[in-house]
Amino acid sequence: MPQNAAAPEPARATRLLVLDPRAPGWTLRLTAAGEGTAVLVLDPARDGLAQAAEVAAEMAPLQELTLCGLSEPGRLGLGSATLVVDGLANGLEDRGWMLAALGEGLAPGAALVLADGAGDGSAGGRLLAALARLVGRDVAAADGRILARPDRLREVPGWLLPPGQGSGPGSGPARLLAG
Fold first, then answer.
1. How are beta strands 81-84 and 37-41 bridged, if at all?
2. What is the pLDDT of residue 166?
3. What is the model's pLDDT at position 168?
4. Residue-wise over 4-38: b if at least 16 C-beta within 10 A, else e?
């Protein structure tokens, strides 16, 4: 074997984990990201939705895109942007292209996942449904109990994301992307 042989190319990431560094536990999610997962740590002073849309477009097609930020049921903060169920229901024309870009970055059958409780409760369900319509893809709560499709919202007892997907512990290194 030649001494100057090139190292093999790393596997292309098929999942993107977006982390707001102001969210509790973000460093644990960073270290737990598995093989095949690229991690984008947002710049808190910039619009996190725009940052995520830009990177998702560069990495397309993604099998999963997980958003982790400052959240409560029906609300998700990503950098300087905040997704609120009432704001989404009213259109968000100024951010519609960003939400569409997130959907375009996802492969057919892939899902957008909201972590940290943003999809909890009735407000969270409304947020998931509004995002599914605007993104044009399935949107799920990270705990897997609620799945919103672009045309409907349904509760799925016992439904979980496939092993190795989501924002849980993984088995290998992640690629870190600076926001």
1. unpaired
2. 37
3. 34
4. eeeeeeeeebbbbbbbbeebeebeebbebbbbbbb
